[in-house]
Amino acid sequence: MTRTEASMDALRRSGDELADATVAALFERGEVGTFNSLMRYVSTVDAPLPDGLPDVAREYLESTRVPPAWVDWSEMEKARLFFIDNNVHISTALSFASMPACYLVPHVAKLLSTTHGLNYPSTRMAETGQFTVYLMRPDAFEAGSRFIPAAQKVRLLHASIRHHLIREDRWDSEALGTPICQEDMIGGQMFFSLVVLDSLHRLGIHMSTEGAEAYYYAWRVVGAMLGVDQDAVPETLDDARRFLDLYMVRHMGPSEEGAHLTRRLIDLYEEVVPGTLFDPIVSALVRHLIGDTCADWLRVPRTPWDTAVKAVPHLLGVLETIEDRSPLGAWALDRLGHLTTVLELSSLTRGRVMHYAIPEQLKKEYGVAGTVPRTTRWTPPAATVS
C-alpha cells in the first residue's frame, strides 16, 4: 500500500464509529456510572451480562464479543509460543522501548495525561502488561477469556476520551485531527508490535521470521478488536516499517509531557530494581533501545552504564545457547521468564486486577486545546525514511 501525507491525514480525521456512538448514548442518557459499576463484575467472555446494563452497552458488547472471522488460529498459536519463548524480553521491550516511543509523540504524551495523569505511568504499564498477558493465554478467545472483555472496555475508554475532549472543546481538531484517531491507533499498534521486535533484535535475541511475523499478526488481531480500520492497517512487517517511519517523521519530537512521563517511568523501575547500585541501568537500557537522539528528546540521563549495557546481547546470547542445547535449560529459562513477568506485573498492579472504565471526566491539568522453530532468522525491515 502506498502511503502519502494525504492518506495519513485522512486517518487523522477518523475515530471509531461504533464505540463513539455507544459512549455518546451512555453520556446522553446519564448511564455511564451504571455501566462502570456493573461492568466491574464482567471480567471473562462467558460471564452473563448483568441485569440493568444499559441497552446500548449490551448491544455493543454482544456485537464485539467474537474475534474477526478472518483470524488464522495457527498464526495465533505461533504468536503465543513466541511470547512464551521471549516473555521476559518482550516485557523489557514494552517497558523500555514501546512506552518511551509513545512519549516521543507530543500529542500522544498529552493524551496519556488525560486518564492517568503525569505522575502515574505505573497504571499505564500495568494495564499494558496485563492486556498482553491476557492476549497470549491459550484461552484468549475462548470461554473464560479475560482478553475480549478487556479489549471491549479499552475500546470504550478510547471513545470516552474522544467524547470528553471534543465536547469540552479541549482539542484543536482542525490542527490535530480526531483525538485517538485511526492514525494514532495504528501507530500504537506499531509501538507494541514492530518496536518490540526491533528491540528484541537490538538486544540480540534470536527470532525466527515465522515467530516475528506471527507476533505482528497477533497485534493486527488486537487492532481489529480495538476498532482499527483493517483497510488501513499494514498487513506485513515491511509495510509496517513504511507506516511507522512515516508516522514518526510526521509527529515525533520533544515535549515537556513526554520528558516528564519518561522520568516517572524511569523512577518507577528504579524502585523495582533492588538497592540503588543498579538504578542507572534503567536509563541506560532505555537509551540503548530508543537511540541517543530520542533519548535526548525525552531527557533520559546519561550514565556510566551506557557502555556496559551494550554487553547485554552477548549475555543473552549465552543464555540462548543454553536454551537451544538443553531441553531442561529451555524449560528452566522459560519458567524463569514467566515468573519474572508475573512478578513485574504484580509489582505494577499491587496484586490487583486492573479495571478499565469509562472516565466520567478527564484530568483537569490536561492543557491541549513450546517454541516457534528458530529457522530463517528475522532481520528488521530497513528504514524507509532517511
Mean pLDDT: 82
The proportion of residues forming helix, as a percent range, comes to: 55-70%
Number of H/I helices: 19
Quaternary state of this entry equals: single chain
What is the 3D shape?
Answer: globular
Biggest beta sheet attributes: none
Structural class: mainly alpha
Number of DSSP strands?
A: 0
Radius of gyration from the alpha-carbon trace, in angstroms:
20 Å
Q: Estimate nothing, just give the exact number of structural domains.
A: 1
C-alpha termini separation: 19 Å
Low-confidence stretches: 328-353, 366-374
Order of helices and strands: HHHHHHHHHHHHHHHHHHH
Percentage of β-strand residues: under 5%
Layout: helices, strands, pairs:
Layout: H1 5-12, H2 17-28, H3 32-39, H4 55-63, H5 73-103, H6 106-116, H7 121-135, H8 147-167, H9 173-176, H10 182-192, H11 194-202, H12 209-225, H13 237-251, H14 256-272, H15 280-290, H16 292-297, H17 305-308, H18 312-325, H19 327-349
Helix pairs in contact: 2-8, 5-7, 5-11, 5-12, 5-14, 5-15, 5-19, 6-14, 7-8, 7-19, 10-12, 10-13, 18-19
Concise account of the structure shown:
Helix content is 64%, strand content 0%. With 386 residues, it is an all-alpha fold. The protein has one domain.
Describe the structure.
It is a single chain. The protein is mainly alpha-helical and 386 residues long. The chain has helices spanning 5-12, 17-28, 32-39, 55-63, 73-103, 106-116, 121-135, 147-167, 173-176, 182-192, 194-202, 209-225, 237-251, 256-272, 280-290, 292-297, 305-308, 312-325, 327-349. It has one domain (5-349). The chain has 19 helices and no strands.
